[in-house]
Amino acid sequence: MPESKVRLWEFAERPTRSSSGIDAVAILALLRSETGKFPPSTIIIEQFRAPVERYVVELPAGLISEGETPEETAIRELEEETGFKARGVIQTSPLLVCDPGMTNANMKLVTVDVLFPENLEMPEQKLDPGEFIQARIVEIAKLSAELKEYERKVGDF
């Protein structure tokens, strides 16, 4: 790197990275009906995040435990945070760097399939002590509008 581009940086470093070199996963759950009883949907969560001192909307996510694959983490975390059980993994993204100007954190986006024989029902969450997560089902066709409405409600950071 040229000397003119070198400068001091203040940043946070995640100390929990597993030997896989991957910190975490975010989960895009595709909720589908076998019989067409409901439109394709997904799940978003709302939880308090201390760095921004407010509740934020995000995809379900979680840290990868030692010896666990991103796909195993995604299936486990989806069930813990939302109660939904994935039937399988559809796709895993390449490694994504979350906020390279502030942290070394990285993740993979894992898309999972959640199939329902009939009605879409919200299962019971399996939250860890100290987790306060509100899960919401949103039709995929309405996801953008839902996120814009949430942004309008909470305002600027």
Automatic annotation (TrEMBL):
Cellular component GO terms held in the UniProt record: nucleus
Swiss-Prot/TrEMBL keywords: Hydrolase
UniProt-listed InterPro entries: Nudix_hydrolase, NUDIX_hydrolase-like_dom_sf, NUDIX_hydrolase_CS, NUDIX_hydrolase_dom
Family classification: Belongs to the Nudix hydrolase family.
GO terms classed as biological process: nucleoside phosphate metabolic process; ribose phosphate metabolic process
Residues in Nudix hydrolase domain copies: 20-157
Pfam families reported for this sequence: NUDIX (PF00293)
Taxonomy, superkingdom: Eukaryota
Keyword Ubl conjugation: no
Protein name per UniProt: Nudix hydrolase domain-containing protein
GO molecular function, one term: ADP-ribose diphosphatase activity
Ribosomal protein among keywords: no
